[in-house]
Amino acid sequence: MSRLTGPSVLLLLGTLCLSSAEDKVTLEVLYPQRSLTVSRGSSVKLSCKANYDQEHCGPVHVVWTQSDRALTDPSKYITTVNETVSEGNMRLRQVETEILDLTADDRGQFQCKAKCEKGEAAMGHFIRIKVEAP
C-alpha cells in the first residue's frame, strides 16, 4: 500500500479545495480564532481574508469591527488592503488593521465582516483582546 506524504498531499488537498470553492463560494471570511494579551500603549495587528466571487458578489466591503463599530478612525487605526485575483472570478482580499496606542477601551471582541454590493454578508470568528498595564 502506498501512502502520500509531504508536498504531494498538500498539493492534492489544495486542488480539491480550490475546485470546491469555485463551485460554491460567493463570499467567505477567513482567519484563525484567537485571544491576545497586549500591553497598554503598544499596538496590535488584526488580519483577515475575504474570498469572494466578483461576478456574483460585485464590489465587496471588508472591515474590522469592535462591538459592531467599524474601526475606521485614522488617528487610532491603520488599515491596509491587498487584493489578488485567483482563478475565474474569484478574488482574495486581505485586510489588516493595526490598532495604535492600546488603552483599556480597546479590550474586547473584534470581528472581521464582509458585505457584497449585491447583499450577501459573511463574518469571521471573534478575536478577544485583553489590555494589561506595561
The CATH class is Mainly Beta
Question: Biggest β-sheet: count, sense, barrel?
Answer: 6 strands, mixed
- Tell me the β content: over 45%
Assigned CATH superfamily: Immunoglobulins
Number of helices: 2
Q: Quick one: how many beta strands? A: 10
Written description of the protein model:
- This protein has a single domain, classed as Immunoglobulin-like (Sandwich).
- It has two helices and ten strands; from the N terminus they run H-E-E-E-H-E-E-E-E-E-E-E.
- The protein is α+β, with helices and mostly antiparallel strands and 134 residues long.
- A hairpin with a 2-residue loop joins strand 4 and strand 5.
- Helix content is 16%, strand content 49%.
- The strands form two sheets. Strands 2, 4, 5, 8, 9 and 10 form a six-stranded mixed β-sheet that branches. A four-stranded antiparallel β-sheet has the order 1-3-7-6.
